[in-house]
Amino acid sequence: MKVRPYLYLTRIDKPIGTLLLFYPCAWSITMASYALQLPATVPLTYISLFGLGAIVMRGAGCTINDMWDKNLDKSVARTKERPLARGDITSQQAFAFLGIQLTAGLGVLLQLNWYSILLGASSLSVVTIYPLMKRLTHWPQAVLGLAFNWGAMLGWSAVTGTVDWAVCLPLYAGGVTWTLVYDSIYAHQDKIDDVKVGIRSTALLFGDQTRPILAGLSASSLSLVTYAGYLNAHGEPFYMGVGLATAQLIRVLYQTDFEHRASCWKGFVGCGWAGFWIWMGALADYTILLSLAPS
């Protein structure tokens, strides 16, 4: 069996998607560990598990997407080289591979408590319907946000056995609006092809007003994350992280040319750094807390 087509099916050559799925999990795990003043072994364990889960489930999401879009991909220049569209993998092989991916994801999920297992399983319906939404609504990016940021709740429940909704709901909402920013930028790469094949997106919906709308969404996202940090009693390092994330999103929105494919890809990847800096702020806060704890 040739391995390379299956690797390309998972987009393993483009790790930014995995990181965008992972960061909300990392925020939540680190913030929960900070709130309960847990030893470092706890976040290390769960960050490792969720990192593996992000790789597996992002790959599964790509497989589902390509199965939905197999025939569409053949007619679009940017996607006709995908393994299913090229015929390197059959639909039956892709379905079997998806079964392996989901089984691996279930294996990771079963390492968690039962509350988290049920919470994690409940996200699969959103993951499955996302590829269909771009045919039905101009807001598929919002549906992607609902799926990609589930870890903002799941990470907390994995650590604590429940969800602190007061903290996690604004954190989740902040992640969803962040997804609207980065995936709208991504969608601008494809808007010409999307019009031809009848695909809808926020890029087409926002049009010439994309920059101010994304600026408003960025402000909303960062405000919600800041509010979650406030409710979790975070200190200055957390807010410094949010400040760096703010500077990064400002830079992305200022520099991105929404009519230029390469610029949109660079902006999309650049948005990922905002998620990284939020995590680094939370992690710095947690690290300082551990260093000040009595031995």
Automatic annotation (TrEMBL):
Protein transport found in the keyword field: no
Compartments where found: Mitochondrion inner membrane
Keyword set includes Hydrolase: no
EC number: 2.5.1.39
Pfam families cross-referenced by the UniProt entry: UbiA
Biological process, per Gene Ontology: isoprenoid biosynthetic process; ubiquinone biosynthetic process
Transmembrane parts of this sequence: 20-40, 46-68, 89-108, 237-254, 266-289
Name used for this protein in its record: 4-hydroxybenzoate polyprenyltransferase, mitochondrial
Lineage: Eukaryota, Fungi, Dikarya, Basidiomycota, Agaricomycotina
